[in-house]
Amino acid sequence: MAELSLHKIAISGPTLASVIQSFSTSPGAVDGLLFGHVTYVTPSTLSDDSASESSTLVATITGFLCSGTINSFYDSTGTVDPSSLHRLLIIGWFSGRRKTNLRPSMREFAVTASLSSMTQFAFSVKNAPESTNFNPCVFLLLSSPLADQPIHTHEYRGYQFRKVTESFDPKSMDIVNIGPAFRGHYGSFSPNAPFPSLACDLGHSPMNEDKDEGSLNQMKQVLKEQKELDICAEGFQVGSLSRLMGSEATNYTAGLENLYEKMLLKVENLARQVERSSAQVLEQENHNRRLRYKFLKSVVPE
Amino acid sequence: MAIPTSNVPPFIAAQLNHLLNHFPLTLKVEQMWSGSKYYPGVFDRFTLVIPYCLEYIRWDVIYNVESPTAAPDVIFGPEDEDFHPFHMEFAEGQLGLKSSNKCLSDWNNKDPTRLLALIQYLRDQYVSYQRKRVGEVDDDRLKFEISTIFSREGIEMHMSSGAEKPEEVKFAVPLMDMNINDMVPGCPWRQTQKIFLQVIYPVGRKYMSAPSAPRLKLVSTPELKDLFSIEDVKLPAWLDGMCLAEYLPHLEESLVKQVKEAVSLIDIRRNFIEALACQFGRPLEADPVFCRKATVLSASGVFTFLVHFLIPTQFPKQQPSLLLQSSQHFNSQRAPIKSRPLNDYPWSPRWETSLMAERIFEFLAEEALNFKRQLNDGQLQ
Predict the structure, then answer these.
(1) Which of A106, A112, A289, B333 would be A161's cystine partner, CB 3.0–4.6 Å?
(2) Which of B164, B259, B161 is nearest to B203 (CA)?
(3) Would you call B33 and A146 a contact, using CB atoms and an 8 Å cutoff?
(4) Where does the sequence pass through the membrane (chain B) (predicted)?
């Protein structure tokens, strides 16, 4: 089977900004995973002279996970540890390093080669005429220029790793920004990596009756989570949303407003808690950094 | 180059210093800088300049001060984007993988020898990578040359190609399987001195009926010039249809002869310096190893001056260059005034060294008066 060549790599402006942000706020070099999908897209602008290719293959990055450090899912030799990526649907990875040339390094090559050779991470291409699989071969490289420059502070480049030639193929990056033109793309940016599923079904619908409910432990877990969710929506069931319609509506609006007020209060409370814990985390991080620096200074090789 | 140790974390400094002091070739660190957000003054990355094929390659070694225990990463030059050292051997078979990959997988930041092992391994891989690239060039002459000199050890090859310059293949062929260092008594060289033949083949000119002669040049390690100047060597002509395997034996034979002669000339220079002592008295200073320099004190009446003898490697075929230095006259910067180099005085290579010294002494007796007059007239600065 011929290797599929990507036409381009698409990423939404906010996602790219967010990747750059997590790179630029990290103390050192970082790596991370890229989530998304690969889709056959029929170009919307039809022109007479581009008859050669009716549809193109686009890799869309919908999300990412930044590890905040290096060697997070691979070792020094660049060999990927498959167990650390268990159950994740990734299309590639990224690496960010300060003040370095914008060229894949020795280890980045090894990691990408290792990752794209693991068949267990292959995923199927969307809208494909026949079922085709694609290996996670997208690599996004971020760096900052060697010399400090006032305006130009970050650089990035997208690559597809080609298994046949064992080389990086630079791909153009299509940055889709929110705006009128974005509407058409909207659907393609919905995340598709499996999120830990929270069981929050509305009571017992007849559809679920005959399903195997799994072990007792699982049920307990589900119940516990349901309870936590219920606390958030205290005094209000999803089912009663139906009261928004019809004769009861006027009475019910007041009740709803009340609920929203309560929720807002809770959210505010939560925000404050998050703020406090963030401050503590920052303090701890600073402390760790000081310790690490002290360690660095004290390491006197024998 | 001295490493600015104050800015470099000790574990990096230890590995880098070990590398610079123990690598068989002379490495240089071109620049060092920091990649850390919070410690911009702590240098954790640097560019290594590594001699390869009589030129230099530049590799960026990237440590991370935030992850001190992690092995460094390397970014190779822009023209070497297909060089994947750890992948190459992966493709060639898994056998060697475990042993040599160790320099990364067993990384220990407290062991100062690790960086050396890594760079040595990478350079070895680079040699075979370039050899493979050159082997893939579609050129019959080149394929033949490679097949006939393949058994020679230490040949380095380099494939250079660019948009604007024509494709070329460079060979650096180490010549003469002998240790010049061992031939020099009291040898001060730390590095083993070598002579290389650089051979540059133009490739990719398919339309030419007969391949043109390659460009040839002798290159030596820099310190060798104290003993032997390769600029004095006349390369044998490259005949039409010749190949390297035919060319090298003649060249090496003549080089071996010339180097041996150059070594034997050290003793003649030593004899000459010893003969100077009979005329001028004991030299104030002399080069004891290669006998290329000697300085004596001389006087003409009350006018005392130094005579510097600069003795060429071709001595006695070429006469020494003399330089007079007054011990009584100084220029405006308070430096002693020297004469112009004197190269034109009675000389014959066939004279005995004692006669050479005698004739120079006679010549200087007259020249001293000249020198003194020039000094007094303010002609010299």
Answers:
(1) A112
(2) B161
(3) yes
(4) none
